[in-house]
Write a structure and sequence with these properties.
- Two copies of one chain form a homodimer.
- Chain A has 123 residues and is an alpha+beta fold.
- In chain A, 28% of the residues lie in helices and 22% in strands.
- Chain A contains three helices and five strands.
- Chain A starts with 5 loop residues before the first helix and ends in a 5-residue tail after the last strand.
- The interface between A and B is large, with 37 and 37 residues.
- Chain A binds a DNA duplex (30 and 30 nucleotides) through helix 1 and helix 3.
Chain lengths: 123, 123
Amino acid sequence: MERSTRQRQAIREVLLELDRPLSPQEVLDAAQSKVPGLGIATVYRTLKGLVEEGAAVAVELPGNPPRYEPSGKTHHHHFHCTACGKVFELEGGCTSDFSAMAPPGFQTQGHEIVLYGRCADCR
Amino acid sequence: MERSTRQRQAIREVLLELDRPLSPQEVLDAAQSKVPGLGIATVYRTLKGLVEEGAAVAVELPGNPPRYEPSGKTHHHHFHCTACGKVFELEGGCTSDFSAMAPPGFQTQGHEIVLYGRCADCR
DNA sequence: TCAATAATGATAAATCATTATCATTTTGTC
DNA sequence: GACAAAATGATAATGATTTATCATTATTGA
């Protein structure tokens, strides 16, 4: 049986409210303002559960442990701030035909684009 | 003093010959056919040295430890085979203006593109 | 309200990649 | 060839993230 707890609610809310891919630690920091005393273990457990039930997806970026965002978003890419380390979601789809970039005989199934730079707050 | 050893030669050769970003383990596997008994520690040490002297660069891909390729290549991107796990270099530069994808106020400094799919051998 | 039990939080343990240690081997110089 | 020192290889140690454990707490259905 799955129970509704303040901790899980807070973690779900944080993912929706901050609206960018969050590391487990970022989730903890944000959710602790809603639920003081929240532990990191609960964050990991809950994120894992959310992914399993399809409510969240893991976002893998180069050189970093996975971050998490709500599922159901349209195809999009990410901006990784080299100063504060935050990852932001990019609006707008991709128009380029990336399949053409693959060598002959290769079958392209998907792609990932990451922009690096400074976010508005860090400039 | 820096000495020329069979191990370092083999590792350098492997990076040049295979011509794709290699994980330390891939380097070990390939170089052991040239130098039986080669140890993983030497691979890590040598790769680190090659990066420090500018002869190789680390390639970071989502969800994977860094891979290594010779430095000096022109700007390029990578193809990650979802079947065998090998990473390949893509020919051809990128024409799109990725800076335009960033939100207002963001400063884009660079980008990374990774295609996912099946390589010619795995289809 | 109560009992059953799922969930939590603190922390120990597990993982995995990478680095440090050190006795031994190999390289470069005289 | 001999010597000094760098390099190697085996493996222990490290660091960082994630998971397991377990006593305690909180939720849910009766």
